[in-house]
Design goal:
3-stranded antiparallel β-sheet; single chain; alpha/beta; 5-stranded parallel β-sheet; 214 residues
Length: 214
């Protein structure tokens, strides 16, 4: 399955999430590309949209290789196989460095506003696709801590092992395509251009989850 761009992927994914329309859904997207997908889902379901910010933990000698991820709120997911032999002091330092970047991005996207508790709501955590799944796992753990009644992981594309990994963390997984021959998320998009923070903020404008009773 090939998507023309993230909007196309979001529209197709939104249709697959139609069954959640009446379960008080809120969309929680992973920046940056996931916010384009999430905006389409939120508009289709008439749901608010928010962001959760995870960051991958980089391997010591190959920053493109992830040994895990951390998300706001301190949720950490370590890939035991990838992190084998990596000194714990390095991991702790990398977590601290990525948490500082998370704070910067949260301030850029939400300001001082925090994600309110999600009691009684269906939280749909989405991205434009996953590869290792580490950032999605950290994001799911972060959102789980906010107490949603139902936690959904929703992505256009992921490898089979990524789907299995999401299923260990979420109550429900919706993935449109799980090809065995998987190298990178971008191979399943005709247009996979990168977004800037300003574009993310524009997509989120006015879409925050309201406080209960507000």
């Amino acid at each position: 399955m090939i998507f023309s761009d993230r909007k196309d992927a979001g529209r197709r994914l939104a249709r697959a999430l139609e069954h959640l329309r009446h379960r008080r859904p809120c969309v929680i997207a992973i920046p940056r590309g996931g916010v384009v997908v999430g905006r389409e889902i939120a508009d289709h379901l008439g749901a608010p949209i928010e962001v959760v910010v995870p960051r991958k933990l980089r391997a010591p000698f190959n920053p493109e290789f992830a040994i895990g991820a951390v998300a706001e709120g301190g949720a950490v997911a370590i890939d035991d196989e990838s992190a084998r032999g990596v000194d714990q002091r390095y991991i702790d330092g990398e977590i601290a460095e990525q948490e500082a970047e998370i704070k910067r991005r949260v301030l850029a996207y939400r300001g001082a506003r925090r994600i309110p508790p999600l009691d009684g709501r269906t939280a749909i955590v989405t991205d434009d696709g996953i590869a290792t799944g580490a950032t999605m796992v950290a994001a799911l753990r972060s959102v789980r801590a906010l107490g949603p009644a139902h936690l959904v992981a929703a992505v256009p594309v992921a490898p089979p092992e990524g789907v299995a990994r999401m299923a260990e963390e979420a109550d429900e997984v919706v993935c449109l395509s799980a090809p065995v021959m998987f190298q990178a998320v971008g191979q399943f998009y005709d247009d996979f251009r990168q977004l800037e923070d300003e574009a993310v903020c524009d997509l989120l404008a006015g879409g925050g989850i309201p406080e209960e009773g507000g």
